[in-house]
Amino acid sequence: MAGGHDRRALARALTAVENETPEGEALLQRLAPRIGQALRLGVTGPPGVGKSSLVNALVRELRRIGRTVAVVAVDPSSPTSGGALLGDRVRMGEHALDPGVFVRSLASRGQGGGLSGSTGSVMDALDGHGFEVIVLETVGVGQAELDVVKEAEVVLVVLAPGTGDGIQALKSGLLEIADHWVVNKADDPGAEATLSDLSQALLLRADGHEIQDRIHLVSARDGRGISALAERLWSESIGSEASDRRTDLRRRSLRTRLLRAAMGQFSDRLERVPADLEVESLAAGASTLASAARSLLTKTLESNS
Ligand SMILES: Nc1nc2c(ncn2[C@@H]2O[C@H](COP(=O)(O)OP(=O)(O)O)[C@@H](O)[C@H]2O)c(=O)[nH]1
Ligand SMILES: [Mg+2]
């Protein structure tokens, strides 16, 4: 685990991994035999529902039952670089001296090649480093964020009173990606109504009857329901089902990586194929976008570079 000096070394190593430098790649290669042990828990939901508060509360509980935890926060609203690092120290808060807790913020914009690839690698590094649980916190708005959470093995979607009803969230695809639904702010009088909206929205789904015990009412503020949730998540992370899930996740992550690499290479090839004929033909109204694109694709596949 990482305390003091080691913590700074780990932070630097993660930067190399995040930026996909050769050092980062070498580190991942060294860690490879130990990667794949951690429970990767995604926590997502609209801004303000209490994700960060819930994550802190879960970290406390997981530490209480002896688990080491790393938090990876991907938040477009958090300040970049220096600011985020300061934020990490603030968030570390009560755990600042605990080598069993590590918090890392990632910039969520402006990375070439997409976010999910390097988020997965940062989690790999923390996993290989020996953290038993890796919590990935991300705002559940937008496709990029939904893609990020696919790097988690178990996904918690967090809702709270006053942040839009469950049915609205369902339409955005947010509810669909959850393994567990968490209504936070149980101390708020509106929580029961949010809980029942959510249950109703979920019961409309085909597998609706199986979901009741995956809906949790908690309060990050007063601690209600937190230890039960933490224990449930940890107990589900052990055993053969969990190991199958982890293999599935590896397969998905590999696919994401493969598509990214293929896109990178292929778009270079596409760029090199002259498109003048297709553009002319489009401009003259002699072809459609679809047929012009098909023609270029065929030329690209036939070009051997
Ligand atoms: N009443 C109540 N407020 C909460 C609870 N959890 C978080 N909050 C508050 O909700 C606001 C947003 O919390 P935060 O954790 O930053 O939400 P995030 O944007 O989803 O990460 C803050 O003012 C928190 O103090 C809770 O369980 N009950
Ligand atoms: Mg937050």
Describe this entry's structure for a reader.
It is a single chain. The chain is an alpha/beta fold and 305 residues long. The protein folds into two domains: 5-258, 3-Layer(aba) Sandwich (Rossmann fold); 273-302. Helices cover 51% and strands 13% of the residues. The chain is built from twelve helices and seven strands. Strands 3-2-4-1-5-6-7 form a seven-stranded parallel beta sheet, sandwiched between helices. Strand 5 (154-159), helix 7 (166-171) and strand 6 (180-183) form a beta-alpha-beta unit. The N and C termini lie far apart (46 Å).
Topology:
Layout: H1 5-18, H2 22-31, E1 39-45, H3 51-64, E2 69-74, H4 81-92, E3 101-106, H5 115-129, E4 133-139, H6 143-149, E5 154-159, H7 166-171, E6 180-183, H8 191-203, E7 215-217, H9 226-236, H10 240-272, H11 276-283, H12 289-302
Parallel strand pairs: 1-4, 1-5, 2-3, 2-4, 5-6, 6-7
Helix pairs in contact: 1-2, 1-5, 3-9, 5-6, 11-12
The structure holds guanosine-5'-diphosphate (GDP) and magnesium ion.
